[in-house]
Every structure is written in structure tokens, then in C-alpha cells.
Amino acid sequence: MHKYFERFQEKREQLLKHHPKQEQSRYGDVYATFEASAEVLERSTRRTDRDALDLLKILAMVHSSVLPLPVFKIAWSGSRSYSQTNSSKGGRKAFRQALKRIYPGFPKSSRSPSSLGELTSWHVSQLPEFMSEQTRKWDDSRLVQASSRLDSLSLATLNCLDGVQGLSMHPLAHAWARDRLAKAMQDQAWVTMGCLLTFLSKHGYDKWQAYENDLRPHIQSFLSVGLGTILSYGPEEVMLPILIRCGWMLIHMREDRTLDALLNHVFLGYGISPTKPSENYILVWDLVGIHLTLTGKTKQAEALFEFIVNIRDSRLPETDGSRLASQHELARVYRENGQIEKAITLLEHVVRIRENTLLEAHPSRLASQHELASACLSTGQIQKAITLLEHVVRIRENTLLEAHPDRLASQHELACAYLSTGQIQKAITLLEHVVRIGENTLLEAHPNRLASQHELACAYSSTGQIQKAITLLEHVVRISENTLLEAHPDRLASQHELACLYRENGQIEKAVTLLEHVVRIRENTLLETHPDRLVSQHELARAYYEKGRIQESVALFEHVVKIRKETLSETHANRIASENWLAKVISETA
What tens digit of pLDDT does each residue of 540-557 get? Predict the structure, then answer.
């Protein structure tokens, strides 16, 4: 049985064209039934029928599930935004340069190597006619008419869910729609769909976020055709921007494994060394850096972003958006790696530039203010962090949808700040809101959903609701262990917190086992002075003490106290806590 699907895929067209006579429709075999409807469109000279055929080709390149029709408008807006921005930057020249790469007889493009991965006007030109012919204002009449035409012929089904129209196909009709296309037509249909996804991604996550769950199977199906096939669709200059923009969609969807496979294909297909970043493919390395950060490989991400920042600092003006974005990401990685002061210094620079050049509600300005506040939280500058986060939350609540991840992220971080100052009820109220929205909009294993559930569990434990906190954290840990790498910071953080709750609840054996695991991983992956490594060692020393393993407790407390004396001020709460515990354990065993 496990080989059946593979065999069916190989023999699908043959099987569906040769049924016993009693199983055939009045048109003949299954495919002939669909083809009879398609021939009606092909014989027609009506514009609606041509649009319907174009739409059918696009649907054949993605999944058979519902494709929301509003994504066509968003992609069109993205293409218009690109065209307007680049019309004065030689857009027509870029278009001709792309053509030179695609068609024989033209000399090679003279575009700079560092621009590999950038969009060109050629990508705009590949959108279907019912989109590309609209130049000033979006009119969905052609799209709706084409969709209705496919529905009337039973080639696709019009759906309406919560007021949003979409098109889906029966799996057999979907298989036929792809199989009927000759190789050249399949290539063109894939490129057209790729350009549509490219401009959908280009226009911003906040525009297509509402359709994320519907789009997920489509982008996975779109990218499943195989590396060799994708490379055959066109030259590097044409294909790479499509793959990069699809990669950014996967970043937002947190489809980490799919993105990992895509990046490996890009490395292999274009002969890029995954360990030797170069300026030529800097747009690819931007994507790689974010992927490394999100998957917990923060030391690799740090080295990569330092390389990117050095390149852009030497090439671009201080206020350039790409340069500031790279500095922002490097600072973020510094914070993840425990280099808080370096992170704050860099973020204060980025925030100052962005506050002088961007509007108050600009997403990039707010993102850097959010990140600076998070870094301040790590150094105990709680009030500064709260002031900054309350500002960011206020702006985002006034400008973003309730379920927008940036809005939820800032509310989450503000709740964490409230926890740090003992404002537990305010924190719980805010976190329960964030968790409720996340559970309604995000997949069970989405890292953002898990992170908010983690913090809510911590808040519950602060009010003595230990069993409620344990139940929630056990859920988070179970999902994390099934979806994240063993050394992923989020997975370790939840395991650490659950172990602490076990200890508080008298489940000492479970606490020791889990903390020993966390400490072992963190000692192998984090610097000796990293706060997360030290806090787990501190908690393990406490668990050893409560289990009666006094000598091990003393040795571990002595190590933690030594490091914290070297890195923290005399008044820092963590240093004082470790010193007091060491004194307590020694005095009780004297």
C-alpha cells in the first residue's frame, strides 16, 4: 500500500483514459469528460472564456483545495507598487535585460551580481491577462466572470466562506488540468503562478495574512515539482526572485522544514556553497539568516549577519532600508546569544535613524523599537522597556488587525514586562487575549502560539495556579519536542520552565531529569556566561539540594556564583539569588 500513491501518480493519466466500457461517461473516459468542457472554452473567442482557460492553468499549478480570490487583487497591488517604485529606476531596461537572458540570440544581462534575486519588469509581464491589463484600479469583474465560467462547466467550484470567495477543484479535475498541458504550457503556467505568489509576498504579510492557512497547501504544492524541473523553467535571474519570495512566505508561515528543503535546492541548483556566503547572492543570505535565527541556530546566524552588515555598511548610505534591516537582525541575534549590550548599542542606532526618517506607524520603525524594548528587558531596564512597548502596542492596536502577528508579538512582550514588575493580573489578561487569538488563527505547532502559551503558564504559576500551569506547559513541551530541534531555544525554555514547576509541585525526580537534560544541551551550545545557561544551572542546583544531592548542589552553585560575580553587578537580582542559595546550602551542611 505504501507504494500505491507513487504508482498511481506514474500511471494516473493512463488509468483515467482507459476504463471498462460500463464505467465510462457518455463522453468516454474520465479525462474526456473534462476535455469536452475545455474544448468549449478553446473554441470560443469570448474574453471571459480566454480568462477562464488562463485561470484553469494557474489552478493546475497549485493544490486542489480552495484558493481565495482576494489573493489576486493583493498580488496585482504588489505588482503595481513594484512598477510605480521602479518606473524611474530603469524598469524597462531591467525588462529587456531579463529577456536577453531568456531568449537565444540576445547578449547576457549586465545586471550587477549583487542584484541577483531582485524582481524585474519581466515578472510583472508574466501575470495573467485579466490582471496585467488593469493599470489604474482593480476591477475583479474579469476574475469573477472567469471563475463563474469554470464553475458553470464543473471544471472548478466556486466557494464562499465567511464572505470570502474562492475556487477549488475536484482532485480528478485538478489532475486532468495539469496533465492536459504540454511541457511548454506547464512551464509557463508555473512561472505565471510563481510571479503571482512573488507579488503577493512582495506586497506585505499584513495584506495576505488572513488567507495564510488557505495558501499553505498551495505554496507547498507549487514548490513540490522538484529542483530539476524548476531550474528548467528559466535562467537564474528569472527563477531566483520567485524562489526567494516563496521563501519569505514560508518564513511567515513558519514552514521551517519546507524552507530548509527549498534553500538546499537553491544551494545545489545554483552552485552556492552553504558555508561560504558571498555578496553575489546576498538576497539569498538574508533569507538564510532569518531561517537560522528562527530555527535556533543563532551562532551561525550571528556570523552570517555580521558578514551581511559589513557588506551593506561599506556599500550603502546610513539611512538605507536594507542596511538598517540587516543591523536590526544582527542585533536580534546578539540578544538571542546573550550579548545584550552589543544588541542594545546597535538597536539604539537603528531606532534613532528610523525615528528620524520613518513615520511613527511604519512597521520597520516599530519593529526596531519592539526589539530594543526586548533587549532592555533582558538587562533589567524594565520601566524603559514597558514605556517603549506600551507605545508600540498602542500604535499597532490602532493600525493592525487583531490577529496580526506583529501586534500579538508586542502584546506578548508587554505582558512579559508586566510579569517582571509584578503586575501579574495585567499580564494574565493580555496573555489570555493573545493565546485566544493564536488558538483561533495559528496551527497548533506554530512557534508564536506556543510561546504565548508558555508565558501564560508562567503567569499562572506566579499566582499559585501550579497545576493549571503544568498542564499548559506539558502541552507546549509535547508539541515542541515533536516539531523543534533538540537544541532549539524555545524548546529548551519550555522544558526548563516545566522542570521548575515540577520542583515547586514536589515532583523532584521529574524536575531533576528534565533539568539535567536542559543543562547538558545548553552547556554544549551556549557560552559559559549566557544567562539561559546560568539560570538552568541555578535551578538544577536547587533541585539537587531538594533531592539531597548536596555536594553536587554546592559545586554547581559555586560555579554559577563565580560566573555571575564576573558578569553582573552586586545588586543584580540573579547574582544575589545564587549567592544566597549557596550560603544556605553550605550553612545547612556545615
Answer: 999 999 999 999 999 999
- What count of residues does the chain have? 590
Q: Is the pLDDT of residue 330 over 70?
A: yes
Of 441, 377, 444, 451, nearest to 409 by C-alpha is 451
Strands of 157-161's sheet, edge to edge?
A: 67-68, 164-168, 157-161
Alpha helices in 235-281 (DSSP H): 236-253, 256-269
User: Residue 44 class from Cβ within 10 Å (0-12 exposed, 13-18 middle, 19+ buried)?
Assistant: middle
User: Does residue 185 contact residue 57 with C-beta atoms inside 8 Å?
Assistant: yes
483-499 pLDDT, tens digit each? 888 999 999 999 999 99
Helices marked H in 316-362: 321-336, 340-357
CA dihedral angle for residue 231, residue 236, residue 237, residue 240, rounded to 10 degrees: 70
Contacts 24+ apart (CB under 8 A), 136-140: 138/73, 138/76, 138/77, 140/69, 140/72, 140/73
List of long-range contacts for 528-536, beta carbons under 8 Å, 24+ apart: 528/563, 529/338, 529/563, 529/566, 529/567, 530/337, 530/338, 531/338, 531/378, 531/574, 532/338, 532/489, 532/492, 532/493, 532/496, 534/560, 534/563, 534/564, 534/574, 535/496, 535/574, 536/492, 536/496
Cβ burial of 355 (10 Å; 0-12, 13-18, 19+) is: middle
Per-residue pLDDT averaged across 159-167, rounded?
Answer: 91
As a whole number, mean pLDDT of residues 414-427 equals: 94
Cβ-based neighbours of 263, under 8 Å, separated by 6 or more: 247, 274, 284, 287, 288, 291
- Cβ proximity of 219 and 250 under 8 Å: yes
Residue 250 CA to residue 265 CA, distance in Å, equals 15
Q: How far is CA 205 from the centre of its chain?
A: 10
Q: Which of 363, 334, 368 is nearest to 351 (CA)?
A: 368
What are the phi and psi torsion angles at 260 (to 5°)?
Answer: -60, -45
Residue 92 backbone dihedrals phi, psi, to 5 degrees: -65, -35
CA distances (Å), 521 to each of 205, 278, 516, 557, in order? 34, 32, 9, 18
SS3 68: strand
Task: Compute the distance between CA of residue 48 and CA of residue 151 in angstroms, rounded to an integer.
Answer: 13
Phi, psi of 159 (to 5 degrees): -120, 155
CA dist., res. 214 & res. 495, Å (int)? 32
With beta carbons less than 8 A apart as the criterion, state whether 66 and 51 touch. no
> Is 417 within 8 Å of 386 (Cβ atoms)?
yes
The backbone torsions φ and ψ at residue 318, rounded to the nearest 5 degrees and listed phi first, read: -60, -30
d(CA 78, CA 131): 11
Instruction: Output the nine-digit C-alpha cell for 49.
Output: 472564456
Buried/exposed 245-277: b ≥16 CB within 10 Å, e otherwise: bbbbbbbbbbbbebbeebbebbbebbebeeeeb
Pull the grid cell for residue 251.
518564513
Which positions ≥6 away from 297 have C-beta within 8 Å? none
- Alpha-carbon span 174 to 461, nearest angstrom: 51
What span, in angstroms and rounded, lies between the C-alpha atoms of 190 and 239? 11
Handedness of CA 11, 184, 195, 284 (dihedral sign): positive
Q: Which is nearest to 198 in space by CA: 241, 231, 252? A: 241
* 564 or 209, which is more confident: 564
